[in-house]
Amino acid sequence: MKTVILIGFSHRQYFDGISVYNQGAFSTPLGDIRVDEKLADDIISRNPRISYNPALFKDENSVEMQIPFIQYVFKDAKIVPIAFGNQSYGDAVILADALAAALKDREDYLIVASTDMSHFHRYEEANEIDRRAIKLLEEVKAKELYDEAQLGICELCGIMPITATLLAAEKMGYDKVEILKYANSGDTYPMGGRSRVVGYLSAAIYKDGFQSSAVSFQQKEERKKESDMLNDTQKKRLLLIARESITSFVKDGKRMQFTEKDPILNEPMGAFVTLHENGELRGCIGNMIGKGPLYQTVASMAIEAATGDPRFSRLTPQEIDKIDIEISVLSPLKKVSNYTEVKIPGHGVLVRRGFMSGVYLPQVADETGWNRDEFLTSLCGHKAGLAPDAWKDPATEIYVFSAEVFGEKGK
Q1: In terms of domains, do 242 and 307 share one?
Q2: First-to-last CA distance in the chain?
Q3: What is the DSSP string of 124-189?
Q4: Cβ atoms 351, 391 nearer than 8 A
Q5: Alpha-carbon distance 149 to 151, whole Å?
Q6: Are residues 208 and 239 in the same domain?
Q7: pLDDT tens for each residue of 175-209
Q8: What is the CATH number for 310?
Q9: Cβ atoms within 10 Å of 89's Cβ, excluding its own
Q10: Are residues 240 and 209 both part of a single domain?
Q11: Is the pLDDT of residue 212 over 70?
Q12: How far apart are CA 270 and CA 296, in angstroms?
C-alpha cells in the first residue's frame, strides 16, 4: 500500500470547507509517517472549497488515532490527512468527486473514514440505533445514512467522512460492504456498566473480484491463528484415527482403542467428521463442544458419520476404500450480540431459539457461494426449523466459531 487517505472531522474548530494536510509528516511513538504531498496537492486543486488549514488538525483525535494502525499494517505507506470543518452534504459530494478524479489512475491506495457510533445510551438501545446505521452502510446508501444521522435516527460523529467515502466508493465502482466487527463499550468492558455505552464499528468497502487490503489483512491474520491449532503431524494422526475407526467398526463391529500422548490431541475440542464418495456427501456428524480429548471425539464422530447419519444408509465394507475423510476441528463457540458480527465466508454459525437449533460449518459458504443473508436464512429455515428470517430477531441466539478443515485429499 503506497498511500492511505485518512478522512476525519473537526471536534474543536469550525471551518467552512474541507482541509487537506499537504506537507511534512505526522509523528507517533512508532515513528514518523510522511504525507503524500503530490496526491494531497492534487486533491486540493480539484475544488476551491478544499484547502490547507492546519488548525483543523491540531489535537484532532479523529485523524491522529488512526495513524498508529496504519503504521503497523502498512510499514512504508504515506498518508493524506483530510478533515471536514462542517456537516454539509454538498462538501461530502465535493470531496468524493475530488477523490474519484485524483485516484482514477491509481490502484495503490486505501481510504479510511474515522468515526464512532452511538453515544451514551443503554446497551440494548445502542445496539438498536447502530443496527440501523449498519444496515444503511451495508446497502451503500450514503444519502439515506447522512439524512438519518442529521435527524438523530443514527448517530455517527464522523458522518461526513463516512458519507464522502461511500460516495467516492460508488463513483469508483466499489459497491460491496463487509462488516468486520461491531461492538460497544459494554461488550469490551462490561464491568464499567451498560447504562451509558459508545458504539464502534469496523467495515470495509470493496468490489467484485477484489477485497480491500483491510479485509484481506484481517482474514489472513484470522486464518493464521486458525492454522496454528494443529500441525501437519497432528492432522495426519487424526485422519488415520478416523479411517481406522471406520474400518474396524464397519467390518468387525469393534471400536478401536487409541492412546495419545500429544497434549494438543488430548485437548477437549469440538470436531466434525465428513465423508465423501465420488465427490458427493456420504455422511457428516460432529460434536460442537469437546467433552473429551480431541482424538476420541474424532474417533467417535468418524463412526457416527459412517453409520449414524440419518440421511444416508450405513457405510458398507465395500465402500470403505471409496470414501475420503474430512475433519473440521472447531474453535470454542462465541455468542455475538447481533448478526452483523457474523463473517461469511469465515465463520461457522449455530443458531438457537428455545428448543430449536441448527448449525452450518464454515465450508458451507465456500461450497454454496452464499452471502451472509443467504447463509443465515438457510440455516434458520432449513436446518434449525425456525422462520427463515429468525436471524434478524434479537430473541434468536447466534454463536460463531471457526474451523480448521483438513482431509485425505489435502483439502
Answers
A1: yes
A2: 31
A3: HHHHHHHHHHHHHHHTT-HHHHHHHHHHTSS--TTHHHHHHHHHHHHHTT--EEEEEEEEEHHHH-
A4: yes
A5: 5
A6: no
A7: 888 888 888 888 766 556 788 899 999 999 988 65
A8: 3.30.700.20
A9: 17
A10: no
A11: no
A12: 10
pLDDT for residue 221: 45
137-181 pLDDT, tens digit per residue, is 988 899 999 999 999 999 998 999 999 999 999 999 998 888 888
- Cα 23 to Cα 176: distance, rounded to the nearest angstrom: 33
pLDDT one-digit tens code per residue, 355-403: 899 999 998 998 888 999 999 999 999 999 999 999 999 999 999 998 8
Q: Which residue has the cell 447466534?
A: 398
**Ramachandran region, residue 313 (left: φ > 0; alpha: ψ -120 to 50; beta: rest):** beta
H or E element in which residue 84 lies: strand 78-84
The alpha carbon of 259 is separated from its chain's Cα centroid by a whole number of angstroms, namely: 38
Alpha-carbon distance values, 381 to 338, 386, 389 (Å): 18, 5, 8
> Distance (Å, rounded) from C-alpha 160 to C-alpha 146?
8
Domain count, the chain: 3
Cell of 276: 465423501
> Contact, 387 vs 308, CB < 8 A?
no
Residue 60 has pLDDT above 90, yes or no: no
Question: Which 3 state secondary structure label does DSSP give 195?
Answer: coil
204 and 349 within one domain:
no
Verdict on whether the full-model pTM lies above 0.70: no
